Amino acid sequence: MFELPKLDYANSALSPIMSEQTLDLHHGKHHQTYITNLNNLIKGSDYEKLSLEDIIKKSSIEKKIGIFNNASQHWNHNLFWKCMKPNGGGNVPSKLENKIKKDFGSFEKFREEFINAGVTQFGSGWCWLSLKEKEDKLVVTKSPNAENPIIHNMKPILGCDVWEHSYYLDYRNKRPAYLENFFDKLINWEYIDSLL
Q1: In which order are the strands placed within the sheet that holds 155-161?
Q2: Which of 16, 50, 92, 150 could covalently link to 97 via disulfide, CB atoms 3.0 to 4.6 Å apart?
Q3: Residue ranges with strand state E in 45-170
Q4: Kind and range of the H or E element at 20?
């Protein structure tokens, strides 16, 4: 049975960039609902014995949409919470910074691509920084709804939720401002570096 992960920070710790009310609802209600639904959907099935990543891959192939959506959203949010910290942003560890510069040309180009991916994702979804492991290359992508880069054989190392529940209380319809603040003031670059 999957369980809601405990946050590494208090629900008020990301304020004012992400408010306590947003975290209460997003972590405590939305994420918990995905987990409850997933546990109910896989109970007594072959999926019950699989890891979360294997559930995502298998349900994607087998077109088990309910299982896929809830499993993928559980995985996506697990990463999302870890990608943030109080007083985040700022200096990027040199290994990660050098890799970003090599693959995007400059850190500023990467920032622009990442924010643009989130802004231009129509409707609900995510924007990602992922590693194409076979090519040893970092790429920015976006995905609709619950989809994540795992099903495209990539390793996501940074994800930002652009579903409205992640920003609407704090930013209303200003998704670009949410993404800029997420990037500049919340990202836990040390954690992203550890995944690389």
Answers
A1: 137-144, 125-132, 155-161
A2: 92
A3: 125-132, 137-144, 155-161
A4: helix 20-25
Domain annotation for the chain: domains and CATH numbers: 20-82 (1.10.287.990), 94-195 (3.55.40.20)
Q: In Å, how far from its chain's centre is CA 122?
A: 16
Task: Encode pLDDT of 131-174 as tens digits.
Answer: 999 999 999 999 999 999 999 999 999 999 999 999 999 999 99
Residues 132 and 75: their CA atoms lie apart, in Å, by: 18
From residue 27, alpha-carbon distances to 22, 34, 62, 69, 105 in Å are 8, 10, 28, 17, 35
Q: Locate 109 and state its tokens.
A: 């180009």
d(CA 118, CA 125): 8
Residue range 58-68: average pLDDT?
98
Q: Please state, for a pLDDT cut of 70, what percent of the chain lies above it.
A: 100
In whole angstroms, give the CA distance from residue 30 to residue 167: 13
Pairing of strands 125-132, 155-161: antiparallel
What is the pLDDT, as a whole number, of residue 54?
98
> Residue 66 and residue 185: Cα distance in Å, rounded?
34
Task: Return phi, psi of residue 26, to 5°.
Answer: -70, -50
Stated pTM of the model:
0.97
